[in-house]
Fold each of these.
Amino acid sequence: MKPEHDYQRIIMGIDPGTNVMGYGLLGINGKKPETIMLGVIQLNKFESHYKRLGRIFERVTGLIDQYLPDELAIEAPFFGKNVQSMLKLGRAQGVAMAAAIARDIPIAEYAPLTIKQSVTGNGQASKEQVANMLRRLLNISEDRIPKLLDATDALAVALTHFYETGKPQIARGPSSWKEFLARNPDRIAPRRK
């Protein structure tokens, strides 16, 4: 099922989690991003970690099949003190990535600091600050923002990817005079005799 709008591209953002996983979809037309959908996948009701991973794969695959994103942007796990929590989070991220890989969708990862910096201008912004900035930037009504801010975090990942992929590529200049002269032989003045 194709979304009702015809977008040039659709970016799906994922905020991985083993209790709650956020997702958000942005439709892009030209330089204008628009919110298609945002929400969370509740995983608390599953006792088994493996059942949670199965549910993540199932739901992410379902969202991909429903909204047909062109790209997936996902928050990279941050290094916390609890190794077990980090391992579980990494598995959740990997399963979401596997769903995208199974549908041949390119994946980009962004660090939490990069996402917060990109959306709010402050790498230490709170979840609430990120949600408020998204509301303003994407003109989202307050009633569309879910109570669990994992959804807005996921949308922030998608918006970060939009910003990052829209940056102009800067050509690398020569690293030395020798390289400059090799690239520009016509700029060498003839030697005088």
Note: The radius of gyration is 21 Å.
Amino acid sequence: MTQHSASPAVMRSKLGQARGLGSAKAGFHHWWGQKLTSFALLPLSLWFVTACIRQIGHTRAEVAHWVANPLVATLFVLLLAATFQHLALGVEAVIVDYVREEKRKLASILIVKAACLLLALIGIISVLKLAVTG
């Protein structure tokens, strides 16, 4: 009588083969972060669009004076922070899903996070500078 040895993968069900794959354990914070930032971006984006429309025809000095209002400056900073956080999380999810090589994946994620942080800081500093000089 000969023994037939099957590989463990053949003997496992499809669910058993899939366990441990994917982002079921590590993806929750990305999902939650994107939900929170998208929820914050809805009213902030509506405010931004209506605020920009209202500023049409105003001089730079008038706009700077408007941005100097602490509530307006705070809303701008929140908009920038939420936008770039949402962007970083979204692009990171795409990189994790489509980039297979670990070194390239890590490098890409670090570059995206650094670029988003830099751009957010530039935007926030610009708003604060305009608010202070306005």
Note: The mean pLDDT is 88.
